[in-house]
Amino acid sequence: MPSSTLFQLHHQEALRTSKRLNRYFWFGAMISGLFYAVISFWLIQTIFGSNHWLVDLTNPKIWLPSAAFTTTVLITLLYGYYEARRRYSERSAIEHLAALGGELVRAVINPRDRQLINVVEEMAIAAGVLPPTTMVLRRDLSINALVMGGANNSIALAVSQGALNYLTRDELQALVAHEIGHIVNEDIAIYSKLSAMLYGYYLLSEFRHRKDEHVHTAPEKFWHLGDIRGVSNVSIVISELIGFSGIIMMLYGRFMQAKFAREREWMADARSVQFTRHSEALVMTLKKALALKIHNGQLIHPARAQQHFLFLLYHEAPSLFATHPPLEERISRYGTVAKKEELEAIVFKMRQQMSKSDTDKPQIQHKALFTASIIYPLLIAQEQESQPLTPLDTPTTEHREAAILSFFIYHSTQTLFELRFNNIIDQHREAHCARYLKHLSEVHPLAQLPLFTHYLHDSSPEEHRAIHALRQQIKLLIQLDHEFSFFEWCYYLILRNFLSSSSEQTLDYRAVQVHIEQVLALCASLSSENEAKQNAYYLELCTQCLPLSPQPYTAPLTTPQSRINSSKAVLMLRQLKPIYRQQLRYSLNTFWENQERLTLPALYLRYTLNQCLQ
User: Fold this and answer.
1) Domains of the chain: which residue ranges?
2) Which residues, listed in sequence order, are joined to residue 225 by a DSSP beta bridge?
């Protein structure tokens, strides 16, 4: 049975477990009372110096103080519980979230806030509940959300600013559906009750750290008694002793909080899949959160008071006290656990997304990428290459020529007007090129080479002659431009490879060793800016590709003529015997995979050589 259809089974399983947890409060109170009775009885017995505990049970001096202490502890627990319930009900849900930094959405001026409101309304309709008041945690740049209740049955849902920044609409739906699932599962009332229970359990351990908070939790440093040496204030000493005495109940409260919250999270995940019918969106939301957790060290660590309310918890906790299931387990329930390479690609995408301005046009963003010093994860390039192509139309021969020419014009310094003024193109072709240039500017740089290859291989045999004649216009363009950029060279090489007639593939690699070394030197030069590393990469490639005795490494020149010579070297490799050509291609791909992160020119070279060595 597919994992995306198992949500009902998961929901029922978690529901049965959650019902048992409602009895944990009273069970814990009974067990804690028994512990305190035994410990206090033993301490008092030790003070009186008696070793006959059966006789001491009838001695009021022994059991009365023990009973009084145990009763006081239990009364404190119950007082804390009912006092917290009272205080929790005094504030509205909006006030609770405002205390955590939440702000009401600004749908009129903020398009992301407007999208959030639409998503909340959609998921509320899918769940059959009224839409809760929607808020945003502006200072939280992680992927997170929570829903809280308050006075007069008020309910409010808050989403972090990071979730609005990083998530797609489908992923935002999965996140909101998870929180709506908490509402449907009646977790709002249950969580407020749980928080009150925890306040009762934590009250003694927090005696020395009392704060006026509406939801309480144990302090971080609960294992030590505190330094009371040399303290003359008796009240401080007493508060430290009382705080230390609450460790037993605090530990049980931590365990109950973690166990209960984990099961409710499983149930809410199941509800998210139920309401969206899109488990992949939930999985990708969790993967993005996991990527942030691993690669971002500046995430907000919320106070324990908020932990069981949140969609995700980023900092680690011992499994016994963890309020959320591990992200890897939540991902594997509905999908496959992300590998290191995938997480790096996800982080790269999110950082690129944050570096863009909402006002920047895609044309400007894409053009800037050709000169930016960006290192791309290899997986990003592979994803772009596997994306469905989006050609402008099904071109005629004339349109196809204009489409191919537009790739060279895009990377040149010449305008269409200058090309027509210099009689390289006519007015009719200028109009066609303008359409394709506009479309090309909206295509990501990593998807432009596959699109160029598509225009070539989608042509008919009759169109090959027209494309062959187009080479003359491309040469005139390069001469007029006085430049031959690396990206133009890649397009030119793929075009030459496409138009070249099939030659006999019979050459031994030793016959073209100079050309092989020239290509390997180019690969090494694009893998690092450090000349020593370039030399090491060059020697590594020469060793792994074929049994060569290479000449010393020389950095390739970047003049137009040197690039033309490089194209001849690459085209000579097409005449290698298939076994040598396949070995060369395999070794180059292995080299790039080991690099993991490549510059845009290196990715262009990788694609170009793969096309030429097929």
Assistant:
1) 386-483, 509-612
2) none
